[in-house]
Design goal:
Elements lengths: L1 H28 L18 H9 L2 H32 L5 H11 L4 H15 L5 H5 L6 H11 L4 H9 L4 H12 L1 H17 L2 H6 L8 H10 L7 H32 L5
Helix pairs in contact: 1-13, 2-13, 3-7, 3-10, 3-12, 4-7, 7-10, 10-13, 12-13
Length: about 270
């Protein structure tokens, strides 16, 4: 009876969490007059809402822009975050702990405080309306550094010392020995960074005005509040569905490593 109750509650929770997303997908496929119903199925399913979105905004170009920005940001955060995390975890130098405390302190600063200084910097450098303005400010992440450092602290130092005795450089130790052992944390940082970059709206709205360079969340936001949707709820739901699918698909493939890393790396040290 106890297990039956637990499974019932888990199923109920899953339905409550999944229903809004399933309703969004179903609503994007329904005729406009049937969207208000709570049911998920309709005998008059249609793709008109998606056709409207694809014809009114360059969603394909925006998808490519978001993919470029998100992949570039994710790659740089994983690369540089692992390098800094390795240095803080396994290299002994003056100011190691002070530097780590400083990195932790930056995580407490709200993004809105540095928003205007970053924008002024992008204007001074002439990077507005370019990919650099979207990628450069997010190439490093204090959270990723912390996560990598915590995971690397659990790797035996004897293994690294043995590699040093064999003549391996620190760079080779990191990429040839530590990285293969750190797949869960790498995948976790990659997923979190990709999701954060993919869903970012405020910063692209500030630094990009060229329609051909707009990211998918940015152009969907303008489509929603700028009047191009013409108050058609089906078009809004179709745009939201197209925006969320890549992140959901990516998480579905890598959720095993994500959960494993959050369980093994986030609470050590």
């Amino acid at each position: 009876m106890r297990n039956t109750f637990i499974y019932f509650m888990l199923i109920l929770g899953a339905v409550l969490f999944a229903y809004p997303f399933l309703w969004m997908i179903a609503g994007s496929l329904k005729p406009e007059l049937e969207i208000g119903s709570l049911g998920l199925f309709s005998p008059n399913m249609t793709t008109q809402s998606y056709e409207a979105v694809l014809t009114k905004i360059p969603i394909g170009k925006a998808f490519v822009n978001s993919l470029i920005v998100s992949l570039a940001t994710t790659t740089s955060v994983v690369l540089f975050g692992s390098m800094v995390g390795y240095a803080l975890a396994k290299l002994k130098f003056v100011g190691n702990k002070a530097l780590y405390m400083l990195i932790l302190f930056t995580m407490m600063i709200p993004f809105q405080i540095v928003l205007i200084p970053q924008y002024i910097l992008m204007v001074k450098l002439g990077w507005t309306d370019t990919y650099l303005a979207l990628i450069a400010p997010t190439m490093m992440s204090a959270f990723s550094i912390t996560l990598f450092r915590q995971f690397f602290m659990g790797i035996p130092s004897a293994l690294i010392d043995a590699a040093r005795i064999d003549g391996c450089s620190e760079k080779r130790i990191l990429f040839s020995i530590v990285w293969p052992l750190s797949r869960p944390v790498i995948v976790t940082v990659a997923i979190l960074t990709f999701m954060s970059s993919w869903n970012e709206v405020l910063w692209p709205l500030m630094v990009v005005r060229e329609r051909s360079l707009m990211t998918m969340p940015q152009i969907v936001t303008l489509f929603t509040i700028g009047g191009e949707a013409e108050s058609q709820l089906g078009s809004l739901l179709a745009a939201a569905t197209l925006l969320s699918l890549p992140v959901i698909i990516a998480y579905s493939f890598f959720q095993k490593y994500f959960i494993e890393s959050m369980a093994s790396s986030g609470l050590k040290g």
